[in-house]
Design brief:
With 542 residues, the protein is mostly helical. Helices cover 61% and strands 5% of the residues. The protein has helices at 2-9, 41-57, 66-80, 87-91, 97-111, 117-147, 149-161, 163-168, 174-188, 201-217, 222-235, 239-266, 272-282, 296-306, 310-320, 323-338, 351-375, 387-408, 413-426, 445-448, 470-476, 478-487, 499-511, and strands spanning 433-436, 454-455, 494-498, 514-521, 534-540. Strands 2-1-3-5-4 form a five-stranded mixed beta sheet. Helix 17 (351-375) packs antiparallel against helix 18.
Length: 542
């Protein structure tokens, strides 16, 4: 206990010493050549920020509706007074904390007159780029604290080169911010180090606060922090003090502030984590949006996210013998596998941890190459490419095309059409829009940024299972559905739909004085429905 108190009284960072996972740069036979660039965290952050800014500008495709509908659309409504709230906000299963971050951004843009179509479309991802760069920096710091500087550099390479991190990390999903907070929080938890007693106790309090904040934003983040908390209980010497004087007050404070914020925004007391638990776990409400086999994360989801980094991550996990981190990944994947509804983004916080192991594996290969060159003749390295050089080539040759294709090409039509309609609306050429496509298939007011009537097909889950929603009715019989819809209401000036439905509705639209004015490429192959190759815009003839 005295040793722990003395350690906590000295505000010194923990040394990156691991008994079972030695810093490769300190092994015998390796001559440390610490780069001046990596000796400064300011340089590392600058590199990561520049990379993420370019990354954000290269993301021009549609991935998941929540990127727009659960963050930007809500923020737009808060600041500008119009925007669509999905059924989740009526049920109180979403916290306003995450959307408010972008509401502040929108307010700043409005004050300076920068709420133009370009800024409205790109500024949110640029803000997320800042958060992502912070996550990258703490990823490097965590890798350095556990494995040392040499491994940390290779881990950062893996993080920046992975196609899914490039594709998803800069999107305005709550999962992206959860990933950032997970990386920051893990850095401050003593149990994640080999020598927890050498970590100042004040850092653990920061780790607790960040963990609580992550849970306030994404209640399912508790899965991660439950595991970490149990590890901390196992290594700490004063368990009662940890629970009573740290976990309870810090958790209660963050949860209380989150509830006060939601009380202010909802207008009534709403316990979001409880409502979220009831819908997603106790009632399996998420299954309404589709289910997968129990093994999906292991056989498809997480393996696709790692892609060609997979064998390096597995090798690094085995060689490093850092079972605490390996156990964390396995725990999260297993718990999420229990639920029927599964998505790639749910396990995004675990991807950097797996990539850290990839960095370890690459660093072992780099050391091996260094030893080979040192022991061989001066020109021996010219006879054949190094193992790590070949690995880098394979990783970049596979991940760069994948990242660029998914970020610039696949499913870009729904983003392009809203940017086009935004510009047309600013020129007063649009009076009303009807979206005849599966619900939430495009961005909405947050991108259009013009207050005019718009209509989407509703897909709110029914209280009774098996009852088709409005979107289902449309997909079953598009012509009959649209005929009834237009008979009972006024005609919009524009209709937006996928080409797969446009083929069925073309004659009907033409008979009602609509003409095709634009067609945007969307995808080369189908995802979960018929091929939606393009997005078509019809306009009502004057």
């Amino acid at each position: 206990m005295n040793q722990r108190r003395n350690a906590s009284s000295k505000s010194q960072p923990a040394k990156p010493l691991i008994t079972k996972n030695p810093d490769i740069s300190k092994q015998k036979g390796y001559k440390s050549q610490k780069s001046n660039f990596f000796s400064s965290e300011k340089n590392i952050f600058t590199l990561c920020l520049a990379f993420r800014i370019a990354n954000s500008l290269l993301i021009q495709t549609y991935f998941n509706p929540d990127e727009h509908w659960q963050s930007l659309e809500v923020a737009h409504r808060i600041v500008f007074g119009y925007g669509h709230l999905t059924w989740e906000w009526r049920k109180g299963i979403r916290s306003y904390f995450h959307p408010l971050l972008f509401a502040v951004l929108y307010k700043v843009l409005a004050l300076f007159g920068l709420d133009t179509p370009w800024f409205m479309a790109h500024a949110p991802r640029l803000l997320q780029a800042l958060f992502s760069a912070v996550g990258d920096l703490y990823f490097y710091r965590l890798s350095n604290a556990i494995f040392g500087n040499f491994v940390a550099k290779w881990a950062l390479f893996s993080q920046l080169a992975n196609w899914f991190m490039f594709f998803c990390f800069n999107r305005t999903l709550s999962n992206s911010l959860e990933t950032v907070l997970t990386l920051v929080g893990l850095y401050y938890w003593p149990c994640m180090r080999a020598s927890p007693s050498k970590v100042p106790l004040v850092l653990r309090k920061w780790g607790l606060a960040i963990a609580a904040l992550a849970c306030a934003i994404r209640p399912t983040s508790a899965i991660t922090w439950f595991y970490v908390g149990l590890l901390e209980l196992a290594v700490t010497r004063d368990r009662l003090k940890f629970l009573v004087l740290e976990v309870v007050p810090i958790g209660a404070l963050v949860l209380g502030l989150s509830c006060l914020l939601d009380r202010l925004m909802y207008g009534s007391w709403v316990i979001v984590p409880l409502n979220f638990l009831k819908f997603n776990f106790l009632s399996s409400g998420g299954d309404y949006y589709g289910t997968h086999k129990w093994h999906w994360y292991f056989s498809q989801g997480f393996t696709v996210m790692l892609f060609t980094f997979l064998p390096f991550s597995i090798a690094g996990s085995i060689k490093s013998k850092c079972w605490k981190l390996s156990g964390l990944i396995a725990w999260v994947l297993i718990v999420y596998s229990i639920q029927g509804h599964k998505e790639f983004r749910f396990v995004l916080p675990m991807l950097p941890i797996a990539l850290m192991f990839s960095g370890y594996s690459l660093s072992v290969m780099a050391k091996s190459d260094s030893d080979t060159r040192r022991k061989g003749s001066p020109n021996s390295h010219m006879k054949r490419p190094s193992k790590v050089g070949f690995a880098i080539f394979v990783l970049l040759a596979t991940n760069i095309p994948m990242a660029l294709y998914m970020s610039l090409v696949h499913q870009r039509g729904t983003e392009d059409v809203m940017i086009y309609l935004s510009k047309e609306a600013q020129n007063e050429k649009v009076k009303g829009i009807l979206f005849l496509m599966p619900c939430h298939a495009t961005p909405y007011y947050s991108t259009l940024h013009y207050d005019l009537p718009m209509r989407i097909l509703d897909c709110s889950p029914s209280e009774e299972k098996g009852i088709p929603d409005e979107s289902d009715h449309f997909m079953m019989d598009p012509v009959s559905f649209v005929s009834t819809l237009m008979t009972n209401g006024s005609l919009p000036s524009h209709v937006v739909l996928f080409d797969s439905e446009e083929k069925l509705l073309r004659d009907f639209l033409i008979s009602h004085s609509f003409t095709e004015i634009r067609r945007f490429f969307h995808a080369h192959f189908k995802v979960d429905r018929d091929l939606q190759a393009s997005v078509v815009v019809y306009a009502l003839a004057n």
